[in-house]
Write a structure and sequence with these properties.
This protein has a single domain (5-39, 64-154), classed as Trna Endonuclease, Chain: A, domain 1. Helices cover 26% and strands 31% of the residues. The protein is built from four helices and ten strands. The radius of gyration is 15 Å and the shape is globular. The chain starts with a helix and ends in a 10-residue tail after the last helix.
Length: 164
């Protein structure tokens, strides 16, 4: 693990955001945490395979349906777009989606444990590494309100118009 303060602060922000979403959004009442990805750790050339996976693999308790969730916190975005991942990450997520649905949860602004906005969307709506603010706003969800499984799965339907 790097001792670079910027990298360690970035990882801390990610972990704080993951704790927020587990406590407030994807709560134990509705979701079982099946897997949680390790930090992007390496020791020379020995990289942990699970660090390439999304942050969580959940199963919803009502439908017993497993899915991946990638959490991203961004302190800010531009008025037009949010840069939410790299091209390599997007490619990996699309490969994983062949096995299980993949959802993306972006926290924007504020602090990781108290974001100003939340956007939750299925990977199928991510056409690139940047998400337009217009698209993001279609998927804005309430802060500190659990996502119930029925609302999560509605997002995957073609007729879905707005989350939350």
């Amino acid at each position: 693990m790097s001792t670079n303060p910027d990298v360690s602060e970035f990882r801390k922000m990610g972990k704080d955001f993951e704790a927020y979403l587990r406590c407030h959004i994807f709560v134990k009442k509705y979701y079982v945490s099946m897997e949680m990805s390790e930090e992007d750790q390496s020791n020379g050339t020995n990289k942990i395979d699970s660090s390439d996976l999304p942050d969580f693999k959940f199963r919803d308790k009502r439908h017993q349906q497993p899915f991946y969730l990638q959490a991203k916190f961004r302190e800010e975005g531009s008025a037009e777009k949010i840069n939410w991942c790299t091209a390599a990450q997007l490619k990996r997520y699309h490969e994983l989606e062949k096995s299980f649905p993949v959802f993306i949860l972006i926290g924007l602004g504020g602090k990781p444990d108290n974001p100003q906005k939340l956007f939750l969307f299925p990977l199928t709506f991510a056409t690139g590494t940047e998400l337009s603010m217009q698209t993001a706003l279609r998927f804005e969800i309430p802060l500190c309100k659990p996502v119930i499984p029925e609302d999560l799965w509605k997002m995957t339907k073609p007729e879905y118009k707005k989350a939350g």
